[in-house]
Design brief:
Aldehyde Dehydrogenase, Chain A, domain 2, 506 residues, Aldehyde Dehydrogenase, Chain A, domain 1, binds nicotinamide-adenine-dinucleotide, alpha/beta
């Protein structure tokens, strides 16, 4: 084997909330990945030729399957990821809505578009563009949302007529395998959707063979994927890390501000690319906001998810992440920050970190600059919104930001000065559910977007077709060049772009 695992190798999957091994999956070798991509390529032609209605019917079956099997899927997500059941259901509802949305919108968003032009060189030509599926889309996903950021991105790729090979994170591969079962039980054509489990080498093998890569994960791996895609000259879309900020303006409803902060910072245990990881509060309301935040933060529960209402914050999914969270807290404390709530890893079994509220923080601290990806929240007082905007933009990342304030016009003006792909006002994270609204990062947070027209068009190649319906024996601008043709072209150009019909021509 040149790359990837030896044949028959398997990867153990643990439950982060208990430490117990809950399954084993194949560590797919590079040769096996190449085989899956070859099968997907063969299946793609027929899938692309299906009319939109037939594809919509397969999607409708998938949607119904998801809703009918929701408890089984929730259990799988909770077991392999350690998240609260309430966080898990969001992933399922998202995918069900994505099936409905892309089935309905794909024909419109991918329809042929007629073009008009006034150029004197091509007057009267009929022109249109058409979109052609790229082929086999390799989707590579992270561990924090095993369904949403993996299978969720496969849906528009399939809707555009591509086939998909999905490589879920090696830490959370079980739910993706349920989606392979969904495809079988819903009678989807063979090999239209396949899952290859494995670690980084399996992902690399997919980047080596797919026709397009949809990658969600860390900025570090994203750079490797982009470099390899560049070598192969294939397109890729990268959804990477973040250090999302929340700004509390002095006219904000503090109740709303605190609720949005806690949801944004702690949903999914703070393990979202769009988690609120730093808060800036205008001086005038800092004390009042912090008092209320402190009171509510203390009430947040954390621990093993065991059904509805059992916990607000689940486990730390990825083993090395505990050390990162610990390091960011210790670094802040060593530079003068104070912990108001939490501050420690919780004792096992399983991996947990206490929901942690930090104050007296500044931009010399890792917790304000590097992605923490855990249930910690540093809060900083700023003189005013000007200072806040400067600090929000003082970041390598630019995924999302949130502004809470009553004067929405002022909030929007500030939003437009923030260097991030998405800004939400008086909400955090909910924009992800608006499938018509593009979502993607600036700076080190990524390239390209998911959702919206671009979120499906990226999975296609564009072909332009131009027809001369009334071809003359020769055009005015053709070899051998003639002065009369030259003058005619110039006259036309002058009418269109110059001094007009009555203007001077030379
Ligand atoms: P990661 O980069 O370690 O791994 C992501 C995936 O890439 C995994 O499936 C992994 O096996 C695979 N991989 C590893 N090396 C590879 C290689 N050389 N070539 C191809 N694939 C390779 O990320 P992670 O730790 O699983 O996920 C957490 C990160 O994901 C965080 O930074 C988070 O912010 C980010 N994330 C971003 C978004 C977004 O939409 N922007 C959404 C969710 C998570």
């Amino acid at each position: 084997m040149t790359d990837g695992a030896p044949a028959g190798a398997r990867i153990a999957v643990d439950n982060p909330a208990t430490g117990e091994v809950v399954g084993h999956v194949p560590d797919t070798s590079a040769d096996e990945v190449a085989g899956a991509v070859a099968r997907a390529r063969r299946a793609q032609r027929d899938w692309a030729e299906l009319d939109a209605r037939s594809r919509a019917e397969f999607f409708a079956r998938g949607r119904r399957w998801l809703m009918a099997h929701r408890q089984e899927i929730v259990d799988s997500l909770v077991e392999e990821n350690g998240k609260a059941q309430e966080d898990a259901i969001v992933e399922i509802v998202y995918c069900a809505s994505a099936f409905a949305y892309w089935a309905k919108q794909a024909p419109r968003l991918l329809a042929r578009t007629r073009m008009r032009t006034l150029s004197p060189f091509v007057l009267g030509r009929a022109m249109y563009t058409r979109r052609v599926p790229i082929g086999v889309v390799g989707v590579i996903g992270p561990w924090n949302n095993p369904l949403l950021n993996s299978f969720g991105d496969a849906i528009p790729a399939l809707a555009a007529g591509n086939t998909v090979v999905l490589k879920p994170s090696e830490h959370t591969p079980l739910t993706a395998l349920l989606m392979e079962r969904m495809a079988r039980e819903c009678g989807w054509p063979k090999d239209v959707f396949q899952v290859v489990t494995g670690a980084g080498a399996t992902g690399r093998a997919l980047v080596d063979t797919a026709d397009f890569v949809m990658f969600t994960g860390s900025t570090r791996t994203g750079r490797l994927v982009a470099a390899r895609a560049g070598e192969r000259l294939i397109p890729c879309s990268l959804e990477l890390g973040g250090k999302d900020a929340l700004l509390v303006l002095s006219d904000a409803s503090l109740e709303r501000a605190v609720n949005v902060t806690i949801q944004g910072a702690l949903s999914n245990g703070g393990q979202m690319c769009t988690s609120v990881e730093r808060v800036y509060v205008e001086e005038a309301v800092y004390d009042a906001y912090l008092d209320l935040l402190h009171e509510r933060f203390r009430q947040v529960t954390s621990g093993r998810p065991a059904g509805l209402g059992s916990t607000d914050v689940g486990a730390v999914t990825f083993p090395p992440q505990l050390a990162v969270i610990e390091d960011h807290v210790q670094d802040a404390l060593s530079k003068g920050a104070r912990v108001l709530v939490g501050g420690h890893a919780a004792p096992g079994p399983g991996r947990f970190f206490e929901p942690t509220l930090l104050v007296d923080v500044d931009h010399t601290m890792k917790c304000m600059r590097e992605e923490t990806f855990g249930p910690t929240l540093p809060v900083m007082k700023v003189a005013d919104a000007e200072e806040a905007v400067r600090l929000v933009n003082d970041s390598d990342y630019g995924l999302q930001a949130t502004i809470v304030g009553s004067d929405t016009r002022r909030a929007r003006r500030l939003a437009e000065r923030i260097e991030a792909g998405c800004v939400t006002i008086n909400d955090a994270q909910t924009n992800y559910m608006a499938l018509g609204l593009p979502m993607g990062g600036w700076k080190d947070s990524g390239l390209g977007v998911r959702h919206g027209a671009e979120g499906i068009r990226k999975y296609t190649r564009l072909q332009s077709v131009s027809t001369n319906r009334f071809p003359m024996r020769r055009d005015p601008h053709m070899i051998p060049y003639e002065p009369s043709g030259y003058r005619l072209m110039l006259r036309l150009a002058d009418v269109l772009y110059g001094a007009g019909l009555r203007g001077r021509t030379k």
